[in-house]
Amino acid sequence: MFHVSFPGLGINDLVINRVAFSIGSFNVYWYGILIATGLLLAAVYAYVNADRFGVDRNKLFDCVIVGIITAVIGARAYYVLSEWDRYAGDWGEIFNIRDGGIAIYGAIIGGLAGGLIMAKIRKHKFLPLLDIAMIGFLIGQAIGRWGNFFNQEAFGRETDTLFRMISENTVIDGKVVAVHPCFLYESVWCALGFVFLHIFNRKFQKYHGEIFYLYLVWYGFERMIVEGLRTDSLYWTVFGVTFRASQVLSAILFVVGIVMLIINRNKDDGMRNYQPKKKQPKQSQKKSTAKG
């Protein structure tokens, strides 16, 4: 149980429980439920809007199934490798993801890798799949980040801003303080990104891949800033230099997205005026009879 408050918003003493419900001695956590819900809604969105993106539904389904599996593997692998000193030798704990311990960039990398490999096998164009996948990622991220809220993790440094949050877990230097609710910032940003890219696809998209590049810019910009606020960032050390892994990766994605949008600024393959093909109703053919 956690007692959570947002004093600046006038919300005090919210009592939250990491466990949603129990089946015997087996606990089902909100973290897992929210991640699963985000993945499910992303898959539903992709399936419903496949025609609009020029994606084959049957091939999409195969890519989604494989992508979800590799996303979970990638998310856990990224986190474990970044915290290897903690997990080395404890193989059972490596596979215990019910208590958290996954990295969003690992999920993105793993999901894209699995989905694109399956797309190659099923002989489907990459860019339309990337476009629809990015909007799906924003849905999953907007919902999944609330798993961090129920776990009371992924918060930022001390602050006195309007959205400050306090709980038993917001401890810095041995004392309970008000902190940045980074999960909230990212959830709202991703929800806005979903709305923006959904509308952009219908009104302004000119070519396949444009949504993908915009996602890199949109999410890379936000994560680059919010990651700098967090107190639990994953750090990597390369050639003696230690840095926040997700912050540097976000900056790279942001720049890559900008460059690709500039390079393709004059590209137009008709997406703006694209109209999904409507299925023609089958006409019943009457057998004619001839008198001899």
Give a nutshell description of this structure.
The longest helix has 26 residues, at 57-82. The protein has 292 residues and is mainly alpha-helical. The protein contains eleven helices and eight strands.
Relevant terms:
two-stranded antiparallel sheet, single chain, 54% helix, mainly alpha, 292 residues, 11 helices, globular, disordered C terminus, 11% strand, 8 strands
Can you characterise this structure?
By secondary structure, this protein is mainly alpha-helical. The chain is built from 11 helices and 8 strands. 54% of the residues lie in helices and 11% in strands. Strands 1-2 form a two-stranded antiparallel sheet. A two-stranded antiparallel sheet has the order 3-4. Helix 1 (30-48) packs antiparallel against helix 7 (126-144), helix 6 runs antiparallel to helix 7 (126-144) and helix 9 packs antiparallel against helix 10. The relative contact order is 0.12. Mean pLDDT is 87; it is low at 288-292.
